[in-house]
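Sorry, explain these tokens?

***
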Amino acid sequence: MPKPNTVKTYGTDQYYHIYNRGVNRQDIFLDPEDRFYFLSLFKRHLSPKGENDKHNRPFAQYDDEVELIAYCLMPNHFHLLCYLKNPEGLVHLMRSVMTAYTMYFNKKHKRTGGLYEGIFLASRITNDGYLWHVSRYIHLNPMDVGQDFRTYPYSSIDYFVGRKHADWLHPEKLVQTAHDKEQYLEFVADYETMHEDMKLLKNILAA
């Protein structure tokens, strides 16, 4: 039987929570360069301007199929929040990104074989409440490694609060005005204590 969320028929005009982790739960990001390269792959395929390879050939563009809304890169896994405009777009994008990143990572860190635990997992978001909760959950992930979610450099929180902007990322799906951005930070912080309590409970149960 396949793992939950591995086999999907993707729908148009739907939001999805995408996640994956390293094989045997090993780290897939070892330094800042790894994280920046991983994010650059989304910029490569989702920027409306398009990018070319070293031979001046255009990379495949999926910006008319998928919109990336939020992300967080943790040492051994990642989370993405995406809006899907084309049922095939998500598979195309993730295959391109994960394959390119594996090739980069293996070459740089002198390893061979698969990098991820398996195919990426995707959970369809069925209502607005769940959508907001997933975005908050993604941005609170740095707390699991003792980092302040407000200043964590490898999540999309800076884009949600207006400190950064990028044409390949679409936080405006959730926050548009300056007031929205101020409220969003409060919205995430409201769950901070509960997130810590849940982490403590999981550690107790796993002991």
Summary: Residues 69 and 170 are 5 Å apart (CA to CA). The chain has one domain: 14-206. The helical segments are 32-46, 89-108, 128-140, 157-160, 178-189, 192-206.
